[in-house]
Design the sequence.
């Protein structure tokens, strides 16, 4: 893992952001010289206060935004060098979007994940359907296959969206706050799935999270962002510390260790 | 709802079925009418009437397909189920071109000026609505509505300044007209070519339409060039609409109702919708034109086809909406 | 602290000037407007108490001029533009929009109008003007109208002469075409942009009567005022002669060309196959007035053109 102080691009960096700068409106930069790299086969969580640029970073990593300075590399090659549409075969993105009530079923939604692999007219092969069904099975959503997405609960819907990402058969999965509206059971369900994807299938997963303890419980690496820059990066033990978190979140925190998992967790404290 | 993979064979089978429907409706429309073909005594009279009817059928098919496709495309582009081909002002531009031309320049070449008007409108709407080369649905819709209002006022002004005979002419043109006493096969061929090109293009964009409907970021991340898709869709749908209006006047309702009807039947997947909408839109307008001919036999006067589509289409659509809605709530 | 000097500010000055200009403009507009409704001409043209005619229909105006009453007409409708002298008479609008103030200011003693709209008649009567509503849908009604106008204006003798002249002309035309075959004639107004249909003269109309006098048979078989027919119907009717009367703006050259091109498509129509589609620009053909004889003669010459005996013109007129 790299911080902004060292040469950030280590040899095994699979997905790397180098010195990204970006502003939606001129004069109000969202990313300032942001540099971070993710090694292959890791679950990394991106943390930071509201408005620090987490979503913008994710959109840049998948190629939806072009930085005004700096670049993003995937497997060493800059994103601009990839032929159009080929990025989607390697990187899957689960955005934090409100659901548009269009009427697609869960299966149809997951099949959309196959679109980087299907041809121009969008014809599907049996292989595409097999991959879609596999993805539904892995996220435990097979029984919703013919149900309309609007009829599902938030947690079920989120699992279907992740299934769509899986159907892309990507190497990298980027998720923007995948559990923000879910209850505890579903939160741990989703992160458990992400964990399995990394350990059992060697995928690289980057998830933006606002829940520090949840991220600390599951991630291999944490990246803390503030005002468009990386302020801390490393293992959960390195990043989840009061002296690291308090200045960024501008509030007092207390960090304890979970005896069962050995991972740190965060307790907010009222300001002094 | 897709329960089986969309393979080329299934796609072609569905397409063939739709085309067959169109051919059947067209054949009926040519043969039937106020006086059915077999009532004619002399061959040359029959030939002339057949020519008239064939022209009507061809025009109706081409315009129906064009408008239905444009309606589908605009609904996808603007992410708005109320969108229809005239919402972005193109029909106003075409209308003003036709009206100004027939009043002050030449009545014969009026459709050409109508198409020019449509082209100008496309340029103006794009120039006003784009921000740094990007087209946002919301801005596009607002711009189009404003430009439409402007054209409406301009047409009213021109109408007010025109002589009384011309006013009647303008009013009649605004109701839409499929049949003519002076067939212009070349015009129909041009509009037909545009409609076919649009159909093919939208078939290739259908996958992108699906994804953009779900979400702009989702689509982009799945490899869809969203902004380019929007631009191409906007230009193509506007041109094909402008050509239709230049040829046959503003025929309403087809562009709005066909996509919705087919969405109810086939689901939201644009890959299935594009060929269906094109053929169904064509069949619908051909059938409406046939209905006007049959009504002529009853009442002596054929109502303009645009009147028929609006008056018959509205209540029928409401009926469909209510039965489907009721069905949906029962399942719950 | 220094008090602010009470200088007039630029803004104040601009406002008061603006108001003055506006007031002056309004006063000027009022003055001009008031002047408009004064009767035209000066005291010299004031007619003594006597016949002051308001003529609201073109053929009435023509009849009045034929009876020598041109100088007694003080007001006309905007469509009354024949003869040329009529154009100097003040216009008061048409049946749809009458300038009532102007009518009153002209002080007519009698108004003649040909309309079926009782409300228009009542409106003018409501101004205190004796209104005579006339009809001219048939030849008989035209004769009656001439008589009534003659009676109302004290010109019964000229009216009788006019009637007899017209009837003589019509008899002449009938004589000339006697014995000739009677082709099926369709008399139509041109199609308009945007509509495939055309208005044709049905049986029982004035034009239909003229066609009969001129030795033709109306191809449209039913009694109807001015029905609209579709192209299919036109093909089915199979007229042998087609007469299209393009008047006013319809007579633009590109439209005329479009009309002839359109008819040429349908070769199964005998008139098209034999090149007997005529496009005329004679407004007087459809006006039931003093020129009916000329109209009948014109139609006769067209319908029977190419016959063994040519038809010589009855007499010269300065009508185009």
Sequence:
């Amino acid at each position: 893992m790299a911080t902004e102080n060292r040469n950030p691009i280590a040899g095994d960096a699979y997905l790397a952001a180098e010195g990204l700068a970006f502003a939606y409106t001129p004069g109000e930069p969202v990313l300032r010289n942001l540099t971070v790299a993710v090694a292959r086969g890791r679950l990394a969580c991106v943390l930071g206060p509201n408005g620090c640029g987490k979503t913008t970073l994710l959109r840049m990593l998948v190629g939806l935004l072009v930085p005004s300075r700096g670049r993003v590399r995937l497997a060493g090659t800059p994103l601009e060098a990839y032929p159009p549409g080929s990025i989607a075969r390697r990187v899957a993105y689960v955005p934090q979007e409100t659901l548009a009530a269009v009427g697609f079923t869960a299966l149809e939604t997951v099949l959309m994940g196959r679109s980087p692999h299907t041809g121009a007219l969008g014809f599907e092969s049996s292989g595409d359907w097999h991959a879609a069904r596999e993805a539904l099975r892995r996220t435990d959503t097979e029984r919703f296959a013919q149900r309309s997405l609007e009829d599902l609960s938030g947690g079920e819907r989120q699992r279907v969206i992740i299934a769509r990402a899986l159907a892309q058969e990507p190497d990298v999965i980027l998720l923007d706050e995948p559990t923000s509206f879910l209850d505890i059971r579903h939160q741990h369900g989703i992160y458990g799935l992400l964990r399995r994807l990394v350990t059992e299938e060697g995928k690289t997963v980057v998830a933006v999270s606002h829940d520090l303890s949840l991220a600390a419980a599951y991630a291999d690496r944490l990246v803390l962002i503030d005002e468009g820059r990386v302020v801390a990066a490393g293992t959960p033990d390195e990043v989840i510390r009061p002296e690291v978190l308090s200045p960024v979140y501008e509030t007092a925190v207390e960090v304890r260790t979970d005896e069962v998992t050995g991972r740190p967790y965060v307790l907010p404290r009222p300001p002094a | 709802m897709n329960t089986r993979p969309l393979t080329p064979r299934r796609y072609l089978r569905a397409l063939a079925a739709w085309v067959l429907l169109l051919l059947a409706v067209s054949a009926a429309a040519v043969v039937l009418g106020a006086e059915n073909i077999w009532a004619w005594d002399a061959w040359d009279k029959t030939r002339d009437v057949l020519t008239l009817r064939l022209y009507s059928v061809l025009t109706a098919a081409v315009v129906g397909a064009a408008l239905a496709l444009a309606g589908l495309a605009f609904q996808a582009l603007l992410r708005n189920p109320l969108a229809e081909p005239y919402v972005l002002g193109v029909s106003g531009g075409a209308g003003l071109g036709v009206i100004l031309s027939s009043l002050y320049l030449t009545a014969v070449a009026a459709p050409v000026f109508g198409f020019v008007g449509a082209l100008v409108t496309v340029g103006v709407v794009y120039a006003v609505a784009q921000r740094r080369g990007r087209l946002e649905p919301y801005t596009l819709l607002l711009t189009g509505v404003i430009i439409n209002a402007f054209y409406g006022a301009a047409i009213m002004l021109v109408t007010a300044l025109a002589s009384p005979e011309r006013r009647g002419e303008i009013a009649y043109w605004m109701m839409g007209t499929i049949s003519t006493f002076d067939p212009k096969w070349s015009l129909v061929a041009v509009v037909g070519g545009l409609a076919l090109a649009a159909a093919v293009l939208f078939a290739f964009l259908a996958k992108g339409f699906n994804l953009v409907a779900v979400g702009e970021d989702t689509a982009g991340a799945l490899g869809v060039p969203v902004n380019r898709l929007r631009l191409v869709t906007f230009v193509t749908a506007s041109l094909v609409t402008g050509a239709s209006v230049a040829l046959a006047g503003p025929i309403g309702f087809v562009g709005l109702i066909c996509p919705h009807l087919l969405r109810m039947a086939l689901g939201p997947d644009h890959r299935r919708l594009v060929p269906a909408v094109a053929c169904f839109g064509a069949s619908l307008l051909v059938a409406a034109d046939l209905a006007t001919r049959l009504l002529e036999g009853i009442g002596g006067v054929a109502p303009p086809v645009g009147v028929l589509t609006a008056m018959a289409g509205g209540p029928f659509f409401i009926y469909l909406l209510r039965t489907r809605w009721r069905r949906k709530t029962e399942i719950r | 602290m220094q008090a602010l000097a009470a200088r007039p500010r630029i803004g104040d000055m601009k406002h008061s000037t603006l108001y003055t200009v506006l007031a002056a403009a309004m006063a000027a507009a009022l003055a001009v407007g008031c002047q408009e409704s004064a009767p035209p001409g000066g005291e010299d043209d004031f007619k003594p108490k006597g016949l002051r005619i308001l003529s609201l229909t073109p053929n009435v105006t023509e009849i009045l001029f034929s009876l020598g009453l041109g100088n007694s007409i003080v007001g006309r409708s905007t469509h009354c533009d024949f003869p040329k002298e009529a154009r100097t008479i003040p216009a008061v609008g048409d049946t749809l929009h009458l300038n009532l103030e102007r009518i009153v200011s002209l002080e007519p003693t009698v108004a003649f109008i040909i309309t079926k709209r009782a409300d228009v008649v009542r409106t003018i009567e409501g101004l205190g003007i004796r209104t005579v509503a006339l009809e001219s849908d048939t030849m008989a009604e035209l004769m009656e109208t001439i008589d009534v106008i003659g009676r109302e204006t004290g010109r019964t003798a000229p009216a009788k002469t006019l009637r007899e002249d017209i009837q003589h002309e019509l008899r002449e035309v009938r004589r000339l075409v006697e014995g000739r075959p009677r082709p099926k004639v369709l008399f139509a107004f041109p199609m308009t942009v945007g509509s495939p249909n055309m208005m044709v003269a049905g049986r029982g109309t004035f034009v239909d009567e003229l066609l009969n006098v001129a030795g033709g048979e109306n191809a449209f078989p039913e009694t109807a005022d001015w029905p609209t027919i579709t192209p299919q119907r036109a093909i089915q009717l199979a007229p042998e002669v087609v007469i299209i009367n393009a008047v006013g703006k319809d007579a633009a050259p590109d439209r005329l060309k479009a009309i002839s091109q359109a008819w040429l498509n349908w070769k199964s129509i005998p008139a098209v196959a034999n090149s007997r589609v005529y496009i005329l620009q004679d407004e007087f053909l459809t006006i039931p007035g003093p020129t009916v004889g000329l109209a009948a003669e014109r139609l006769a010459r067209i319908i029977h053109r190419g016959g063994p005996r040519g038809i010589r013109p009855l007499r010269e007129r300065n009508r185009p």
Summary: The mean pLDDT of chain B is 86. The first helix of chain B runs from residue 8 to 31.
